[in-house]
Amino acid sequence: MATMAGRLVARTSSSSAKRQRFSSAVLLLALFQSSWCYDDAAATTTVDYGYNNEHEADRVAFLPGQPRSPPVSQFAGYVTVNERNGRALFYWFFEAQTSPAHKPLLLWLNGGPGCSSVGYGAASELGPLRVNRHGAGLEFNNFAWNKEANLLFLESPAGVGFSYTNTSSDLTKLDDAFLKMHTAS
């Protein structure tokens, strides 16, 4: 577990093992974090870092208004955390700028209803790209934390940012639990 959390993907000769480690790390982090909120029952080639087609399907090649330099290696998608309720959390992942396989993985959670990890953490605070002051494009963040670590921004709980649930009662349960937790004496 420490190896999965500490490294993005260990270099091995088996792409199946890489895919399993990457998927397991993202899923375990999402499941661990989502348990705090609720208490109810592509591409066709392999790239330099050894990602397979499944990972390449989540690669974000370029965003509108994104500066061309320095290059930003990024992935985005969904992790299903409750299949029965149709609950999925959105993630946005940025590789470290150098030697990503040897850099730690940092999970960023802005936390709480209405507080987006993507809108605040990734796009305003420590991510490699920021919305420019005119709102007409993106600019590189010279103080981005992906200079030293792989960054994983997770939108949580379901209903915040791009994360979603297909079960409306999930949203009211969260609100009730949040209010109970913060209004108790």
From TrEMBL:
Record keywords: Signal
One Pfam family named in its UniProt record: Peptidase_S10
Superkingdom of origin: Eukaryota
According to the UniProt entry, where is the signal peptide?
Answer: 1-37
> Its GO biological process terms?
proteolysis
UniProt-listed InterPro entries: AB_hydrolase_fold, Peptidase_S10
GO MF annotation terms? serine-type carboxypeptidase activity
Keyword field contains Signal: yes
Q: Which family does it belong to?
A: Belongs to the peptidase S10 family.
Task: Specify the protein name.
Answer: Uncharacterized protein
Question: Which organism was this protein described from?
Answer: Zea mays
